[in-house]
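the two lines:
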Amino acid sequence: MISRIIKEGFRGVGRHWAMSLYSAIAVTITLLIISLFLMFSANVRRFTQNVEQSVQIYAGIDYDYESPEKMADIKKEILAISGVSKVTYYSKEEELEYWLDSFDDEAIKEIYAPDDEYNPMHAAFYIETEEGARIQPVAEAVGKIEGIDKVNYGGESTLSLVHAMASVRRGGLFIVIALSLLAIFLIQNTIQLTIMAREDEIKIMQYVGANNRFIRMPFLMEGIIIGVMGAILPIIVTIWSYMYLYSLTGGILLSSMFRMVQPMPFVLYVSGILLVTGMLVGLVGSFLSVTKRLRVRR
Amino acid sequence: MIECTHVYKRYKKGTNALYDINIKVEQGEFVYIIGPTGSGKSTLIKLLDGEEVPTKGTIKVVGIDVGKLKRRQIPIYRRNIGVVFQDYRLLPTKTVFENISYALEVINMRKSQVQKRTEEVMEVVGLKEKGNAFPNELSGGQQQRVAIARAIANRPKVLIADEPTGNLDPAKSDDIMYLLEKINREYGTTILMVTHDLTLVNKHRKRTVLLDHGHINADLAEGGYVQHDQ
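prediction for all of em together
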């Protein structure tokens, strides 16, 4: 039974090769676009995560609250804020050292280094949040804690970058879904064309006593085969182009913050998605169009 | 085998096609249905193969009430009858062998048996060496033979032939008739043949039912064409 379906499916593709090729090309084009968006959105996702992870909230401690007990209380209060994932303490000395280290020129370091025991820096907590979107509310809550002198989180520009990336990500997903639907519609139409040409064939099959399942199965197989055929080129293009781009850029775009997703096994995942999408689209497309023609007229 | 009792058919458009049709065909009979265009011959065939439902009355074929069948049951019912059409209706993308074996695969016959039976009926219709040809490579007469082979492949008790010689020249028509007679004689298949080829009807005499304007005008056991005032 199954061998008949597979055999008939391949035979159908072979004997209507022009129509099959036409449908397969429709699949190929949509899968290429889907592949492009998959690669794009996966990388944007990775960039966003990188950016979000590197954004921290700086909370400087007031000079009057530098005793260990008071600072322990402040830390407790910060940790109690929802969305906070990590709090790291830096002492006044560490802060000063960090600040001085930011100058390359030894002479300038000399000028700024305080000559007596006086240290103008604040001790500070560096706070990381669970997700980028929580930065602003967490920063506001931290600012209200008694003993916090100053809160800083890189400002609006960081936030808007995070927001922009999130919406690019959402938009990418939406486009992928919309394209898949478009692909099904396209394939349904092409397969419908091939089936309209074969309406008589289906009628004859019904005349000799074939039930709907018997007629439908080989057509579904044909749809799957067409889907697979259509997926071959996009898979090759995906693997080759992503590998090429990765090796060309060394995996880094513009700055170390924009690090690309490793090609292995990422391209294999994308290929898998393309193959399954192609098969599903072919299956659904031929199912929709063959079922329409199967109703026995009475 | 075939029993029509008070069958009426009226199409939705309002045209009446058949009035009070009563026909009884016994097993092994060979019956012609003749009549001019528009006399209701095609409607009768459609009622018999389940394509149309009678407005009134019952049609029983091999004991099955055809009018009461649900849509899904039609393909299964059609396995009991073989149908041959004027335009052959072969699957153009399948070879002669595949066209015939398809009708057997449909009833889930085992593969080895399909092979055997297909070769058998190809022999019966005299196309043993044409198995790998496609329908468009055959003459009309040959295509009709394939259609007949397909129709009798699963040994139906009833064979319905709708103008089987309609597209063929007289010599080829004769050949088809001999073939149908052979099937009727050797396998005891009940044959109902719709035709308007009067030469054939007069040459191969059989029980003849004359349809006119949806009425049965005559049912002659001895056959031959009835002259009547037009």
